[in-house]
Amino acid sequence: MLTNEQIRKQTGSEKRGFHIGADQWKALTNLLFEVGMLRHTPRTGYQFLGTGRESVAEHSFRTTVVGFVLARLAGADWAKVVMMCLFHDLHEARTGDFNYVNKLYNSSRDAQALADAWAGTGLGDEVIQVQAEMDAAVSQEAVLAQDADQLDLILSLKQEQDLGNPYAPKWITHALDRLRSDWGRHLAQTIIQTDHTDWWFQTADSSWWSRKNGQSVRDEE
Q1: Which of 58, 110, 111, 197 would staple 54 via disulfide (CB 3.0–4.6 Å)?
Q2: Which residue(s) pair with 42 in the sheet?
Q3: CA–CA separation, 146 and 111 (whole Å)
Q4: b vs e for 98-117, b when ≥16 Cβ sit within 10 Å of the residue's Cβ?
């Protein structure tokens, strides 16, 4: 195992004045293992919807991409929006995902869970600060991040609707009501009018899908 001194020499961190002790390295490593738990943490609303499934990690990834798109369109601080979206459900590695039915009867200490996740890392202050800003939903960036969270859900619900779930449209209606920005509402309208397969099914001429064994015209000649 490399010592801290060897690590500093290999990375050049000693010259930059970047000193990390063994306890901080351990806290950072623990955090990264904790982030991995989100791959195994299910989004629990799907059990009420009846179809579909995803992990919190999967949800967080597309939410972050949506947040980037909204921020660039709106001329907002896209780095802050991306940061909000990336970490907005990190606490669920400890608390689990509470869906709307769960929240009728239960509550969780989300802020405490997030603080505990970053404890000892020396890097958590900014994350905790932007998450508090997102929860307050006052700044433009927070509003866009909140919308990104809902738009990821709307995308998933639209896919379930396309696949025949009769309850998905009702859920979409409520998710649309939760949108806060014009950018989010405009994007949502396009989402609900778009088949979830268009991105790949319409990339080729319709005759391509009828060719035997996926052969090109030249192969068939």
Answers
A1: 58
A2: 55
A3: 17
A4: beeeeeeeeebebeebbbeb
Residue 135, both tokens = 């929860």
Provide, for the chain, the percentages of residues in helix, strand and coil under a 3-state DSSP scheme, each rounded to the nearest 5: 65, 0, 30
* Cα(113)–Cα(47) distance, integer angstroms: 25
What's at 128, amino acid-wise? I
- Which domains does the chain carry? 21-196 (1.10.3210.10)
What global pTM score does this model have? 0.88
Q: Tell me the CA distances in angstroms from 96 to 17, 113, 130, 198, one per residue in order.
A: 39, 11, 21, 33
- Which run of H or E residues covers position 34? helix 22-37
The whole-number average pLDDT for the span 2-12 is: 59
In the numeric block, which tokens belong to residue 97? 């995902």
Furthest C-alpha separation in the chain: 68
DSSP structure string for 69-97: HHHHHHT--HHHHHHHHHHTTTTHHHH--
* C-alpha 139, offset from chain centre: 19
How many other C-beta atoms are found inside a 10 Å radius of the C-beta of residue 51? 15
